[in-house]
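Pasting as-is:
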Amino acid sequence: MNAIVMVFVVLFPMAAGVLVPVLPFKNRTRMMIYIEGAVLFNSVLVFAMLLHQPREAFVLLKFTGNLSMSFRLDGLGTVFAAIVSVLWPLATLYAFEYMKQEGHEKIFFMFYTITYGVTLGIALAEDLVTMYCFYEMLSLVTLPLIMHTLSREAILASRTYLYYSMGGAAFAFIGVIFILIYGTTADFVPGGVLDTARVGSPGLLLLVYLLCFLGFSVKAALWPFSSWLPKAGVAPTPVTALLHAVAVVKAGAFTTMRVTYYSFGADFVRGTWVQSVLLCLTVFTIVYGCSRALKETHLKRRLAWSTVSNLSYILFGVALMTPLGLLGALCHMVFHAVMKICAFFCAGAVIHQTGKNYIYELDGIGYRMPKVFAAFTVSAMALMGVPGLCGFISKWKLVQAALESENSLACVGVAALLISALLTAIYMLSVSVRAFFPGGNFDPAGLEGGKDPNWMMLLPLAVFVAVMIGFGLHAQPLVRALESVAAGV
């Protein structure tokens, strides 16, 4: 029975989403109740499943030979599924208020809810083939969300997203094929599944692993595949928050963990030229993303470039090829999801309430929207890595993993993390400073109309702030659980 629940939590949101434009809702309130009820019900089922950890797998479709679409819950999948199921109901609640002014709500919430199920399909996939199928489906169901407004910028952004996703999928597919040929199984197994007796010369397989990693990391915005992410900021904020904090980018990071630690095996790659290439790319992206964020004056695009940098924190931990590196990556995957969705929701609240998109327009607005900018400041400090907030925990674990790896490039990565912390402080806190300390030339007449939004937008922000502070002060239970996952338990 537990195994059937795994399939149900994947298919139910997809079915519920398809019904949104079909059901004859009498008014908008009933539509909201239906959507939020479906999402909350599914999240409750997910947590019930996580608490009762089904032991067996469930085969949904059988293709040919040993190829199938099947689901199994393990430690790594538990982490990703928990992130998604916690954040999705809050994001949906926020979206109800935001989407009032956007139009085409039924189509929007159809794809928004379907995306929930598809993302859980990636988290619960038993094997590389199943994960790849849902990874491709994620590109298809999020594409209409990016182009929702149908503006010229949205269409161009969605086209860029599609091109990058197709290219990444092609590279990733090469890895899938080679695992099917040279692996003992397509299932995810801690330590990897390569049959060393059949591998022979590892040179070709190392190249294939690199292509596979780069293919999946397109959604994690690794340089030089990062430009699609800031462009996707033209989508409504509930979409960009999920793109930049939960579904798409975390799916990219999650799949790189899978292929590195559960398919090819970290031992196979550690110490090779491929590891050096990945460390160089991730270290460069950390600094590059921060530098672009510092230069950017558009609020959502600044947060997007910040996401590019922070995603490479996770990929840097993956590229260390050690259990401690994976622990740091998992910690930052969890904490960054909360920190960044909070920051994006604050930006969305400003845009929704005032119509202001650029940072130079925010002088003094903190006095009109004190709750929103208080939450933004907490998320900014957490992203900087201030002790007492969750961002410090994950950054500390990554630095510790880098130093213990005894890899010279990893030590360069530590320097990149320190530079990133400094640049993050500048580009994030400068927004809060403008909002609360506008300077002597400030004209309060320009703030007419701005105020904190209603409870549907403020409640998710309050939850995120509590989580950032709570994990910052007491993260040990979660860290111990993630240590077990990183160790393959």
